User: What shape does this take?
Amino acid sequence: MTDSEPSVFDATCSARHALEIISGKWAILIMSALGESPMRNGELMRRVGGISQKMLTQTLRELESNGLVVRDDRGTVPPNVEYRLSGLGQSLTSTLSVLDRWAEENFPALDAARERYLQQNPKR
Amino acid sequence: MTDSEPSVFDATCSARHALEIISGKWAILIMSALGESPMRNGELMRRVGGISQKMLTQTLRELESNGLVVRDDRGTVPPNVEYRLSGLGQSLTSTLSVLDRWAEENFPALDAARERYLQQNPKR
Assistant: This one.
């Protein structure tokens, strides 16, 4: 590896920016949801528990502007707008699924560690 | 799947909390760095470009309190404190590496998409 190779560890590298776009719980959850099937706004609001409309709109726009999500506006009245993953977005879904499943399988270990930590570090 | 199974999509589920801990660029970058080797604070500051001391301390403490990172304090004078991944943390490294490499390989596609988007949506 030379210094000029792209690296997520380099704050000035576009690779870091790309990592910032695809990390973060809302981006991960929205892309995971759209990995199941294309969805409209209301469906995403129901699928991604706890997200606000503002955060959903903002994250969808960021994913769309970076080519990860396609906003499919049929241009009809009443409006019929659907979101789906692009090919680029689809190339991430298997990895994001591994993260999701890891969290669903390992949260008891994190919970137990947190309890131990709080007992051992009551003042922190 | 029943409704009672843990799901990252459920905002009240501990699995969501676990996903929140392991997503986020700083947690991902710190765990990726420690996946290379155990490091002291100064080494982590140099490896994870752009992180502030405050954010490094805060993220390390969160990872430690959730059992992902071990803080190894030799108790010597001068202090010699090293951070390393726990077994739980190590179980994530291959997946985080895939995310890092994805970002390093695909950032040109994200950059190009963003440029197209800005041209097509000049007012947004």
